[in-house]
Design brief:
Shape: flat
Helix content: 10-25%
Largest sheet: 8 strands, antiparallel
CATH architecture: Sandwich
Radius of gyration: 19 Å
Number of strands: 8
Structural class: mainly beta
Number of domains: 1
CATH superfamily: Domain of unknown function DUF4426
C-alpha cells in the first residue's frame, strides 16, 4: 500500500513539474520580408491578461527595433453577442516588442499584429483559441 501511495505521489509531482515548465505559446510567421516570432506567456492562452512578445527580424536575420507595432485583436460576432474589437500598442524592450492582451472570454479570437516601418505596413494574422 505504501508503495502505491509513493508511486502516485511521484506521478503527481512529475505532472505538476511538467505543467510548471510548460513552454510559452510560440508561433513564427512571415510578414513581407520580415520573420516574426510571437510568444504568449500562457500555453494555451487564457481568459484574462496574457503577455505577448513580438520579435521581428529582417531577411538578413537582423532584429528590427525601430518599427511601430500595434496589435488589433477581437472575437467575431456570434448569435446574441456583438463583435468585440480591441487595440493595444507594443513597446520595445531589448530586441523585441512587449504588449499586454486581455482576452475577456474563452473561445476563438483573431490577433492582427501591424508592423509599420519606413512608411510601409505589414500585418501578421493569427487565430488563437482562448481557454
Amino acid at each position: 500500500m505504501k508503495r502505491i501511495i509513493a508511486i502516485l505521489a511521484a506521478a503527481a509531482f512529475l505532472m505538476a513539474s511538467g505543467l510548471a515548465l510548460a513552454k510559452d505559446y510560440e508561433l513564427t510567421k512571415k510578414a513581407g520580408n520580415y520573420n516574426v516570432q510571437i510568444n504568449i506567456d500562457k500555453n494555451p492562452p487564457v481568459t484574462g491578461i496574457n503577455k505577448m512578445t513580438v520579435a521581428i527580424k529582417d531577411a538578413a536575420g537582423k532584429e528590427i527595433t525601430d518599427a511601430a507595432v500595434a496589435i488589433d485583436y477581437g472575437m467575431p460576432a456570434m448569435p446574441g453577442m456583438g463583435a468585440m474589437n480591441y487595440k493595444t500598442g507594443a513597446s520595445v524592450k531589448g530586441d523585441s516588442y512587449q504588449a499586454t492582451i486581455n482576452f475577456s472570454m474563452s473561445g476563438p479570437w483573431f490577433v492582427n499584429i501591424k508592423i509599420t516601418r519606413g512608411g510601409k505596413t505589414q500585418t501578421v494574422k493569427l487565430n488563437v483559441d482562448i481557454k
